[in-house]
Specification:
Pfam families: PG_binding_1 (PF01471). It comes from Ulvibacter litoralis. This is CHAP domain-containing protein. By secondary structure, the chain is of the alpha+beta class. Helices cover 36% and strands 18% of the residues. It has 2 domains: 82 residues, PGBD-like superfamily/PGBD (Muramoyl-pentapeptide Carboxypeptidase, domain 1, Orthogonal Bundle); 174 residues, Alpha-Beta Complex (endopeptidase fold (from Nostoc punctiforme)), CATH 3.90.1720. The strands form 2 sheets. A 6-stranded antiparallel β-sheet has the order 3-8-4-5-6-7. Strand 4 and strand 5 form a beta hairpin. It is elongated and about 65 Å long.
Length: 274
């Protein structure tokens, strides 16, 4: 893969514990982040804690609660083995079988794999669009201004393309901007406008990107198309919510009526050839 920032989210430099002499603020924040992410899926676990880089009694207790949940020795200490369990969902999300060779199938499988791993953003120091999942998709960037829907979509395309030895950057540049991808699609003749899509839905296929059009050259949100049926597409989108926001909180599967929405479609056909 070209986008490899996720690897930094899977390791800590040394064992972290209360009053530890080798404690590292960034590593402690990673631990606190993953404990909080675990709590989102397991709200009664008691693992959510402040993400402040201080391995104090609250973090120690949260670690112990996690260790109880996972049937691990209850020490309140996080070594790499414990941390690997904490961030195991991300490692699984970025593991894609090499048995499949069809790029479109790989794109859909990669998107589904990430969806099943529950990527959520966190608020850290009052800033939304933060946490390990956002940094993984956004090449280390995070914070309120870093909308991550395109970062997610490009990560999925990158993962699928690299599995068969292809470079996603031949399709479009690494970017976090829907406008950049939309403009590149127009330049390459790969962007189908919503008016054409409505008349001929066969122009879009699973694995393509939709771009939600605000105006002719302004796109505000994107996601992976996973299925098309009748007037509806099924999608997997980053930085969205139950209302389909472009600045939501998670990766989610959605349905969208392309006959009623201004959904331009970027074809990934060049990655499927040769």
């Amino acid at each position: 893969m070209k986008k490899t920032s996720y690897l930094k989210e899977l390791t800590i430099k040394s064992t972290q514990k209360r009053r530890g002499t080798s404690n590292n603020r960034k590593d402690v924040m990673k631990i606190q982040s993953w404990l909080s992410l675990y709590a989102i899926q397991h709200p009664s676990s008691g693992t959510v804690t402040a993400i402040d880089g201080d391995f104090g009694p609250a973090t120690e207790k949260a670690v112990k609660n996690y260790q109880i949940e996972m049937n691990l020795p209850v020490s309140g200490i996080v070594n790499q083995e414990v941390f690997s369990k904490l961030c195991g969902t991300m490692e699984r999300a970025f593991t894609l079988s090499t048995a499949e060779t069809d790029v479109r199938t790989l794109v859909v499988k990669a998107a589904e794999n990430h969806l099943a791993s529950f990527p959520y953003e966190l608020q850290i120091k009052g800033a939304s669009n933060s946490g390990p999942w956002v940094r993984a998709y956004m090449d280390g960037h995070e914070g309120s201004s870093w909308y991550w829907c395109m970062g997610f979509a490009q990560t999925i395309i990158d993962q699928a393309a690299s599995t068969v030895g292809k470079n996603f950057k031949t399709l479009f540049p690494l970017t976090y901007s829907c406008d950049t991808v939309g403009t590149k699609g127009l330049e390459k003749g790969l962007l189908h406008r919503y008016q054409k899509i409505r008349k001929d839905p066969s122009l879009m296929k699973p694995g393509d990107l939709f771009l939600l059009q605000k105006s002719t050259y302004d796109w505000t949100h994107t996601g992976i198309i996973t299925a098309i049926k009748d007037d509806v597409i099924e999608t997997i989108e980053g930085n969205t919510n139950e209302a389909g926001s472009r600045n939501g909180i998670a990766v989610m599967k959605r349905t969208r009526n392309f006959q009623r929405s201004k959904l331009d479609v970027f074809s990934i056909d060049p990655l499927t050839l040769g």
